Amino acid sequence: MIELTIIFIGISVLLYVLLGGADYGAGIIEIFTGSKRMNTISKAIAPVWEANHIWIIVVIVILFNAFPEVYSTVTMYLHIPLMLVLIGIIFRGTAFAFRYYDPFQDRSHKIYTLLFKIFSLFTPFFLGVTLGAVILGNLTTDNTLSFHDRFIAPWLNLFPFSLGIFIVVLFTYLAAVYLIGESSDNESRKQFSRYSIRLLIALVFSGAFVFVSAQVNGLNLLDMYLHSGISISCAIIATVLLPVFLYALRKGMKNMMRIIAGAQTAAILTGWFGIQYPVLVVLNNTSSLTVYNTVAPAKTLLMMIIALVVGLAFVIPLLLYLFRVFKFTKGEEI
Fold first, then answer.
1. What is the extent of the structural domain holding 286?
2. Partners of 290 in the β-ladder
3. Engineering a disulfide at 154: which of 54, 102, 113, 138 sits with its beta carbon 3.0 to 4.6 angstroms away?
4. Number of domains the chain contains
């Protein structure tokens, strides 16, 4: 049952990155395009942005029930970046809702737009910072240490910040790819196509920066990566897909581009899984928190899995119907 629980977490994380992540990325792209593409971006994310948050909620619920020690450790000792993420989610969602549904294009509309852009960048950055702190190994549960050592030092490092930058670039890349298909005019499609290529290049360089910053902070991430067959295989897959993506982009195959971008993202996340599993949280100078030494009793896992299966049996068809209504055009071809 542990493996099944991990599969649920992995799929939920992937779906949140592919769907919710692209929503954040759309707001980041608007920073560069300005009001020119505002309508295209708003119409693209308005019907589905709230629904996409369901997947991060699923991850939180699973961690709370299946791995309570992991949940309590992360939420206690990384409460500052997590609180910043929550603040970003609230402000970004509120600003977008007021901007999109406000009938008056006055000064307040500009304020909502500014907040939407800022927190679209702010939120995924601190998501990456939190993840970086979980991986780095500076996290400590020693309550004799100072406030700074316990609650600030674990995440205020180069590696977590580099991972925050990488997450921002990844989300923006996904958004650019998706927006090519959402555009109704040729000029917009060309602009988002240019952004896709530039962001793909930026993704490669920001990924390299993650490995360099890890080495600076004492984490030999490259060595861990090279000793994992899964991670190496995922790196090869992501690399091979680069020219395939460029070909699909040149041919205007918008659905194929989305599939390839999704596959690249899945390869990145699986590569990270390959070096991390079974560790969930790396602690400083103590044994790490793994899926085996923090797992809840078998009965709790069973009840949670039953609840997930029953709940998703209702939710997934409704989500598919939502996307079919708002995101599917009859006669669309790959």
1. 2-324
2. 279
3. 138
4. 1
